[in-house]
Design brief:
CATH superfamily: Glycosidases
Mean pLDDT: 92
Radius of gyration: 22 Å
Number of strands: 10
Largest sheet: 8 strands, parallel, barrel
Order of helices and strands: HEHEHEEHEHHEHEHEHEHHHEH
Low-confidence stretches: 1-25
CATH topology: TIM Barrel
Distance between the termini: 54 Å
CATH class: Alpha Beta
Length: 356
């Protein structure tokens, strides 16, 4: 009887083997998330207009470098924001030194980088859209050179956050990008922090359409990359996960008319971060968990050859300045963002990014 049962099971296994192989072939590939970071607005609504007291700063931001087990909650912090006009002019005044806010100093950068967390600076933001316009119409080449030199000085990457939906100055922005790359070439290994240059686009292709179309076609290809990747900019605080996913899908597929498909390996999805909400304080109830299968498995829609977005960015650590509170004690995010870092096995420090 046992022999008969054994033979029966063996025969069944043989019959089911092709079915299992078909299922495995049909199952979407799962990518390791590589980008898992926060934009950081400091304590003054993203101005960084004063030099931090590092004792207070360390208390406020300890959750970023320690999720409770000694490991950081993220592998990237993007200090937000630098005024593009001041950077172009290398302005030194009460709040800036050579165009960089005085709060974005080496002590802050070393605080994160000494724990394996990569640091970038974001140029622009919605409040500085007119300043981007002014800089791009005045001397975008000088702005690009100054941005690259600042990146080298502070050992940080730079992000383009030019939120101009109607008639953006693409000629000027191309001059900025070309000037930056003339100082620091693209680095696929990711070892040169200053070579990391990214762009923030809309959550889909319907907001910053002209910018998304140009960036996708000229800077975010897998054959001749100029920028490292794009962030799918956080939409409204109330945006559902399904709506965000449809926007990210649109980036990957293109809009069918103006914007070409973007390789999943050139895109990170963005989520809202509020100190009293699940993304911050409860990973099991969070958007990052709810959307994780989509983020890890979305297949190429016409560009690139590997599945899965690069990962997540969160808006924002510190105090955003839009009545959402701060991610400071007691409303810290090690149980939400940090829980995700553990669950997703986020590489810290950040590994070399997928290129295809």
């Amino acid at each position: 009887m046992k022999k008969m049962m054994s033979q029966s099971r063996g025969s069944l296994a043989v019959l089911l083997a092709p079915v299992a192989l078909l299922w495995l072939a049909a199952a979407p590939a799962q990518a390791q998330m590589q980008v898992y970071g926060v934009w950081h607005c400091y304590s003054d609504a993203c101005s960084w207009a004063s030099v931090p007291d590092m004792t207070t700063f360390a208390t406020d931001n300890n959750w970023i470098i320690d999720r409770g087990n000694g490991s950081p909650s993220v592998n990237l912090v993007v200090l937000s924001f630098v005024n593009p006009v001041k950077l172009m002019n290398l302005t030194t005044d009460s709040t800036d030194t050579n165009g960089i806010p005085i709060g974005m100093d080496t002590a802050v950068i070393n605080y994160f980088e000494s724990h394996g967390v990569r640091v970038m600076m974001s140029i622009g933001g919605q409040s500085y859209t007119k300043d981007w316009d002014k800089a791009l119409s005045s001397n975008p080449t000088q702005l690009g050179i100054n941005a690259a030199n600042a990146a080298k000085q502070f050992n940080v990457g730079m992000e383009i956050d030019y939120e101009k939906s109607s008639n953006p100055n693409l000629t000027g922005l191309q001059a900025f990008v070309s000037a930056y790359r003339s100082v620091i070439p693209y680095d696929p290994t990711g070892q040169n922090y200053a070579a990391r240059l990214t762009i923030d686009l809309g959550d889909g292709d319907t907001y910053l359409t002209s910018l998304a179309a140009y960036a996708t076609a000229n800077w975010l290809t897998t054959t001749n990359p100029v920028l490292d990747y794009a962030n799918a900019m956080v939409a409204s605080q109330k945006t559902s996960v399904s709506t965000l996913e449809s926007g990210w899908q649109q980036h990957v597929d293109g809009d069918g008319t103006t914007v070409a498909p973007l390789a999943p390996a050139k895109l990170a999805g963005s989520l809202w971060l509020i100190g009293t909400e699940p993304n911050c304080n409860s990973f099991t109830s969070s958007d990052q968990l709810a959307a994780s299968n989509f983020v890890e498995t979305i297949p190429p829609g016409g560009a690139g050859s590997t599945s899965g977005l690069l990962g997540y960015m969160f808006w924002a650590a510190g105090c955003q300045g839009n009545c959402t509170g701060c991610t400071y004690p007691p409303d810290t995010c090690e149980n939400g963002v940090g829980g995700g870092a553990t669950s997703f096995s986020i590489p810290i420090p950040m590994s070399a990014l997928r290129q295809q």
